[in-house]
Amino acid sequence: MSKRNPIAVVGLSGIFPGAPDIDTLWRHITHKYDACAPIAPQRWIASGDYICNKSPQPDRAFHNRACLIDTFNPDLDGINLPSDSVQELDPLYQIVLSAGHVVLNDCITRDIAPARKKVVLAAIALPTDGASKTARRVLGRALKARLFGNGAPETPCDLSLTDGLSTRVTGLPATLLAQAFNLQGGGFTLDAACASSLYAVKLACDELQNHRADLLIAGGVSRPDCLYTQVGFSQLRALSRTGRCAPFDQNADGLVVGEGIGLLALKRLDDAVAAGDRIYGVIRGIGLSNDIGGSLLAPANEGQLRAMRQAYADAGWQPRDVDLIECHGAGTPVGDKTELNSLLQLWGADGWETGQCALGSIKSMIGHLLTAAGAAGMIKTLLALKHAVLPPSLNFTRTPDGIDLSRSPFRIQTETASWESPAVRRAAVSAFGFGGINAHLLFESWQPSAKQTSAPATQPARIEIQSVAEPVAIVGMQTHFGTLANLKTFKEAIFNGQPIFAKRPANRWHGGEIAVAPHLGPDMHGAFIDRFEPAVDRFRIPPKELPDILPQQLLMLDVAADALQDAGLPQRLDRPRMGAIIGIEFDQEATHFHLRWQLPRLIDAWAGERDLSLTATEKAQWLETLQAACGPPLTPERTLGALGGIVASRVAKEFGLGGPSFVVSDHAGSGLRALEVALRFLQQNETDAMLVGAVDLCGDIRHLIAEHQITPFTSDSTVKPFDHNATGTLPGEGAVALVLRRLDQAVADQDRIYGV
After folding, report:
1. Which of 253-267, 598-612, 626-640 has the highest mean pLDDT?
2. H or E element: which one contains 735?
3. Do residues 407 and 350 lie in contact, with contact meaning Cβ atoms separated by under 8 Å?
4. If pLDDT is split at 50, 70 and 90, which confidence band does 173 have?
5. How would residue 153 be classed by pLDDT, with cut points 50, 70 and 90?
6. What is d(CA 618, CA 228) in angstroms, rounded to the nearest whole number?
7. Strand residue runs (E) in 250-397
8. How far is CA 635 from CA 56, 697, 709, in A?
9. Rounded to an integer, what distance in angstroms lies between the CA atom of residue 524 and that of residue 725?
10. What's residue 81's pLDDT?
């Protein structure tokens, strides 16, 4: 970025645990406020026996303490959406809209055309309250009917349009934000695990650097079903058993879950100065990478170092140029130790003064906000630059065994202190996520010169002449659509004009007897995948874990493997300059667990409706029967197997990809959005090859009923595009993968090229 127009942060907003705005957040940071507290009863839908603080037990959480947003009054003024509809939306969307309203009012936008405003937002692909509610209403009704022997529910499932929208967990937050505030450049979401917010900022900076937009709103949001995250992180042994996040401390025992949103408004620095914006800081460099070694849960120094070195090369800085590092610092012993070792290796053995650089982590105060964690860290750092204050980190006494910072360039900042430095202050932010996804970002304070201060607000932005983008070649492909299991059968069906619509496969989907309309029942037609069973020895996944992984992940792995083979690329080879971008939508099967956990309360309610008095034995028998019908309990393997965002990480780990690897969501355009993002990495020479994919298994009855409220499905068995007799669409399932290289390299290596 030092070689191009730097990017200025011109607006900030956030809603965090205990802090409805960034001013409150900063006050809490400087006064060392800990937001961890017991989860409110209305948010904890399971009974007390779902807590077990001993060794991890299936379906059990260590405790019910977290950093959550207890009270929230959405600010809906100026929103271009029906206010009554917004009030009914899942809180996820409400905090997105409220924070969006604030950040857009924090910067100058009057001279920017709506089509030049865009959104890139990180959002986690986990069940929300709204998605879990839909599962309860749809599948819970089926279980109730089965329990009392009726065969089918007495009345149709009465989901509303708002209910349908609330199931669009991944793609909708950015789309809704763009629509609400007339950001006609559109937007999309991504999930790069805990590094997501920094990835969103990187993609936003690329849009600005290449003059595809003039204002970007970027950041991250995380507001999943808190019971799911509490149980899930307990299964992975990542949750702190003490409910205390202590980054880099010898007694650290895990993370504390948090939730919230943080947004940054970004402009090119020249444009921000010309418009008279307040500039919180300037982005000077960003580095991204994916671990090649390690595992989905265990981080690796090699990947973290590649991301950090890339950021410093981008900025033209040396590591010793920064005074403050907002670390990932989640409080997990292995993760924290790996991060400290990475920093020690990065700075080297000399060229620095002892204790010159302060380290900290906001997770010690507001918990781990998952896809919004990086946004919280960036906002904390930008406020530190603004106030010239080094902010403290909580719960630190001394480093763990094997890590000695006393003779290093680092110190853990435990008290609020003045930032004594030259006129320009410099800081870094790290984010390292599940799947080995790494990001490192460099901020610099802004000191305007007299000439820049006097620039009129109406001064036109300087337009840089852009070179023609390097052409990109498609050198490998594979598909699996419905019953067409490969590219060959797909080609034959397309050329021969053979539709593949058929009835929904029997006994595949839970709740198949439910119908909101007759044509959504068992006789519904679509391009469904009736059977998919990957070879147990094809991937480096223990065979016993395969049944616990969502089919979405396995299908994408299978298609990706075939695409790489089609491109002539060996599957077992380290590729530090190849990444994977996968388009996805939220898989409703991840909500099975919520229904399992609420069954004790549902059983009490159903028995009460029929004036039944159940003995403890009878209730236990009902519970066992219904839980078996619901699906298996949440275990460590199923926790990873249900993480939608880990689809790309599985691909990267399986095939040794060290470049940026993450998922994107943009509804039906998710695959094309993945292709667009991958093209940018190649054309900017940040990677040498990319695997682009998209996968969707939308035949789940919850998805079908919810989508029917938004875009009704036809009652026919055919689809008639552009025909005056068209009555709607039908669902289709499948996956596709493309292997991309820059054209000059593909030609030089004599690759088979499908197209450019």
Report:
1. 253-267
2. strand 734-742
3. no
4. very high
5. low
6. 27
7. 260-268, 281-290, 324-326, 357-360, 389-390
8. 9, 23, 33
9. 19
10. 81
Q: Tell me the pTM.
A: 0.95
* Coarse DSSP helix, strand, coil percentages of the chain, rounded to the nearest 5 percent: 35, 20, 45
Helices (H), 251-331: 269-275, 301-315
> Are 369 and 258 in contact, with CB atoms under 8 Å apart?
yes
DSSP classification of residue 666 = B
State the pLDDT at residue 284.
97
Beta bridge partners of 239: 255
d(CA 220, CA 124): 9
Residue 286, pLDDT score: 98
Distance, C-alpha 696 to centroid of its chain: 17
Q: Taking residues 332-342, report their average pLDDT.
A: 96
Cα 234 from chain centroid (whole Å) = 20
Query: What does the block give as tokens for 97?
Result: 């809209």
- pLDDT digit string, tens, across residues 188-210: 999 999 999 999 999 999 999 99
540 phi, psi to nearest 5 deg: -85, 55
Give how far Cα 704 sits from Cα of 169, 505, 526, 597, 712, Å: 15, 14, 11, 23, 9
Pairing of strands 357-360, 502-503: unpaired
Contacts of 128 (CB under 8 A, 6+ apart): 90, 92, 166, 169, 223, 224, 225
Q: Give the C-alpha distances (Å, rounded to integers) separating 107 from 8, 280, 584, 630.
A: 11, 11, 32, 49
DSSP E strands: which ranges in 173-256? 187-191, 215-222
Helices (H), 610-715: 616-630, 636-641, 647-655, 670-683, 701-710
